[in-house]
Amino acid sequence: MIRTHFTKLLLAGAAALMATGAFAEGIGASLLTQQHPFYISLASAMTAEAKAENLPLEIAIANQDLNKQLADVEDFITKGVSVIIISPVDSTGVKSAIAKAQKAGIKVITVDVPAKGVEVTSHVGTDNYTGGVKAGELMAKQIGDKGNVAVIDYPTVQSVVDRVEGFKKAIAAHPDIKIVSIQTGITRPEALAAAQNILQRTPTSS
């Protein structure tokens, strides 16, 4: 239900932006991945909602590859879409592509992951810092306010950076809990390898 409302809000905003332009050439969406349940649901819901509202929509999947995402945005610019929806692979790395789209008169909406260093027309997302705080509080409760924990990070994505900062803030309120390692795991295989490495080095990690 939350994802349905999320998608309705996202596409309603895109449709409104299309209506304000001289031309309505459609919406191009560049999503970060299709390897995560959230993004699978998002792509599916966007497709269904666009069909229901008769909105022209093309979705490209970046597969967590910045170069692929930049090429997809370039393709949308060439096609002359009215609106680009993007969940950045790299919050800073998409800056130039967003600026180029805006220079071409295309409205840009970021979804889930904000962009850094560039203004966008709108951002649709959640409060990731607060989400991280809540995750940290839940972790502390689950391990009885004592133990070692580790974090798998995605430092080029601002939403994850915010989430990790919130988590660290919550854990800091529990002096008997120690964050013993923070390692990068962008893809699932990388995250699995990082987790295995952490467990081998610190087998008491919770």
From TrEMBL:
Pfam families: Peripla_BP_4 (PF13407). Residues 28-201 form the Periplasmic binding protein domain. One of its GO terms (cellular component) is cell envelope. It is found in: Cell envelope. The keyword Transmembrane helix does not apply. Gene3D superfamilies: 3.40.50.2300. InterPro entries: Peripla_BP_I, SBP_2_dom. Keywords: Signal. GO terms for molecular function: carbohydrate binding. Belongs to the bacterial solute-binding protein 2 family. This is Periplasmic binding protein domain-containing protein. It comes from marine sediment metagenome.
